What we know:
This protein is mainly alpha-helical. The chain is built from 23 helices and five strands. It has helices at residues 2-27, 35-50, 66-78, 82-107, 110-120, 125-132, 138-157, 165-188, 193-206, 208-211, 214-227, 229-235, 244-253, 262-280, 303-341, 347-371, 389-392, 394-406, 416-443, 445-464, 474-483, 505-513, 527-534; strands spanning 469-472, 489-492, 518-522, 541-546, 549-554. The protein has a five-stranded mixed beta sheet with strand order 2-1-3-5-4, sandwiched between helices.
Amino acid sequence: MAFLERWHLVALGLILVGVSLRLMLLKQHWPWTDSDEGIFGLMARHIAYQGERPTFMYGSFYMGPLQAYLGAAFFHLFGSSLLALRLGLVMLFALFLVALYLLTRTLYTPGLSLLTLALLSLGSPYMLTYQLRSYGGYLEILLCGTLALLIATRLALSTGPTLSGRRLLLRCGGYLAWGIVVGLSLWSDMLFLPLIGFSGFLIIFFCWRDLIRLLPVICMLGGLALGMWPLLAYNLHAPPGLDTLSAVAVQQQGPVPLHYTPALVWQQIKATIQLSLPTISGNPFCPVSEVPVLRDPTSAPTLACRLAHLGWGTGYLLLFLAALGLAGWDLWCLGRRSRLEGKADQQADLVRASARLLLLLAAAITLVLFIHSLAPLKWPSLHGRYLIIFWVALPAILWPLWQGMRATWSFLPRLRQSGRTLCLALLLLLLLFYGIGTAQAFGETSTAQLYYQQDMAFVHRLEELGVTHFYSDYWTCYKVAFLSQERLTCGVVNQQLQPGYIRYWPYYWATHADHHAAYVLPRGDYDAALQTLMAQPNRHYRLTLYGDYFIVQPVG
């Protein structure tokens, strides 16, 4: 018992280290914010101070705003700020680490669970960004997807031919909990749909004796309806084309259907291996940013960087395929042995082997769907976040190396020591690279503070000029609105000064109704729009240059 407690204490220490590192980064305004995060900040303000109860992220029909609700709770405690908005993310990530630790201990070994925690308490700047910037969906589905598989595995491990009344009630609580976390996951985002589906398959296959009773099924369905009630309530009355499934389909394929050719498929595979997989799996070298307005650092496309990306992506994919093959082989061997020796003695091993394989299959299906989508063709590095299920599958992917480090190598005795040394070296190298990535994030804190100061100085300058409503581009609008505590509100316009990518229409209508609304236009992209605006014969404007912006205010 004391030995087990030591494992738990070490795990708690690693989780606290991870939380502390993230709080230190947040205190220094890292990562820098943008308008996507500004939307969640505005939602949190409206929930906290205006009584709004949004079902989805503003401007979408498929992403639940749980992060905004958490932000609203922290706003009540600490006031409205960027730091308070992000505290809920740290809480969600800490809970994810706890759930993943318990899942890894259940499916594998305590040692591998601690190694997984050590790796995920660190991470590359890209990984840390999606753990600390409020973008919605990702951390919720990480937590809920991990919990769904953990609960399903525990239920499958504890099933039996007979049930007392007390045990049946306890198991019904497990089915209810599984339904709730699955419902919350589906409301937050549908990225983990393969993992959610496979966790349900695990329950159906191993717990069928429970499911022939009415009460467990009612608990499962009731929990599912409870967890996804906002999603259900909206879609019951959603207009055609504005329902969640239609929105997800458009998001997956893009506005124009792709006509697949061998060359296009090869381009999708190549971009996924070279950029998407290395980015989401923690490669700290040669970062790539396809959207300059996000201010993310990017490296020159040198030969060394291309080789680093290709080597990391190929190696990670081969390790993943090895893990998938090993999981399938283990399950096949266990199934064959069960038929020969009696199934009852092998039940627990079969459950664990099945859960391992299903976890990897969920990641494989997600990878195939990603390759088949528009994501690797447009911004493959940025869109690597859609492969975030690989964080949950990390212990399964590392399992071949962990096994190789501990194996006797009886089938290749001459390679025993060198094989074990190689596996250990690869694990230590991965831990070193994640540490390098964390150090890189701390190295960017001075830049993050500079960006934050520039953003706040910009807000103050607009206020000094008497601006209250303004037209601007998407990446300026909602960030400024949130950082100004909504003292400044805006309408998004495109380069023709027509309504652009508008997520919150009340801002646009308020700006449109203000005849003294200013134009805050990024220099370069909006130069032609500025000339058109200044050439209007019946209007007069005062032009102010500030940094990279034209500030155009009507006179009279």
